[in-house]
Amino acid sequence: MAIIVTLPDEYGYVLLATVSTFFVNVFHSLNTGAQRKASGVKYPAAYASQEVAEKDPKAFAFNCAQRAHANFTENLTPAIGAMLIAGLKYPVLAGALGGLWSLSRVFYTIGYTKGGPQGRTKFAVVSSLSLLTLKLTAAYTAVQIAFAGKY
Tens of pLDDT along 60-78? Predict the structure, then answer.
C-alpha cells in the first residue's frame, strides 16, 4: 500500500528551521576550535583535565564550549526529526519552534562558554521547552496520521 504525502504550502518554514541547525553546528565547531586554541588543549584530548580546568580559565571555557557542542549534537537528531514530523500538520508552529530552538542553542553556548554552567541556564529553559513542545507536536502528528480515517 502506497502512502502519498502532500506537504503543506508552509513546509518551507520547517526546512528553513532544519537548515538553521547546520549553521548552528558550524558556530559550535568554530567556537570550540577557538576555545581549544586559546586553552592550548591538544588533540586528541576531548577535554582539559579537571585539575587543569580548575586552575586555567581558558581551559575551563574550552571544556564548557566542548560540553555545549556535545549537548547540541545529543539533541540534534531528535530536534530535526521532531521538526520534520510536526511540520507535516503544523508547519508554521514547527518552523517557529525549530528556529527558536536553534537560536536558543547559540545563546546557550555563548552563555555556557563565557559564564560556565550557570551562564547557560535561561537559554537551557528556552531550548528545553521548545524541543519538548516540538516532540509533543510530532507525537500528536504521528498519532493523527497513523489513525487517520480509522475511527
Answer: 999 999 999 999 999 999 9
What does the angle CA 78 – CA 31 – CA 58 come to, to the nearest 5 degrees? 120
Where do the structural domains in the chain lie, given as residue ranges? 11-146
DSSP states along 48-108: --HHHHHH-HHHHHHHHHHHHHHHHHHHHHHHHHHHHHHTTT-HHHHHHHHHHHHHHHHHH
* CB burial readout 103-142, b (16+ within 10 A) else e: bbbbbbbbbbbeeeeebbeebbebbeebbebbbebbeebe
- Assigned architecture for domain 11-146: Up-down Bundle (1.20)
Longest CA–CA span in the chain (Å) reads 64
0.85 surpassed by pTM:
yes
